Amino acid sequence: MQTLLHVSASPRGGISHSRRVAIELVAHWKLMHPGLLVVDRDLAACPLPPSEN
């Protein structure tokens, strides 16, 4: 099974142009690759914890 990691980082959310383009690209990939597992990560909504080093 193929996996696609989709990472969003724009704090603009739904008004972000790049986010809208990425959503369209992911939808196209899903059509072209049936069974594709998409893992979504939104770093604006759930930021990574600070690094210890």
Describe the secondary-structure layout.
Layout lengths: L2 E6 L8 H16 L4 E6 L11
Parallel strand pairs: 1-2
Structure in words:
There is one protein chain. The chain has 53 residues and is of the alpha+beta class. The chain has one domain (3-42). Helix content is 30%, strand content 23%. It has one helix spanning 17-32, and strands at residues 3-8, 37-42. The protein has a two-stranded parallel sheet with strand order 1-2. Strand 1, helix 1 and strand 2 form a beta-alpha-beta unit. The radius of gyration is 13 Å and the shape is flat. The relative contact order is 0.30.
Short description:
The protein is of the alpha+beta class and 53 residues long. It is 30% helix and 23% strand.
N to C succession of SSEs: EHE
Instruction: State mean pLDDT (0 to 100 scale).
Output: 92
- What is the radius of gyration computed over CA atoms, rounded to a whole number of angstroms? 13 Å
User: What composes the largest sheet?
Assistant: 2 strands, parallel
List keywords for this structure.
53 residues; alpha+beta; two-stranded parallel sheet; 1 helix; 30% helix; flat
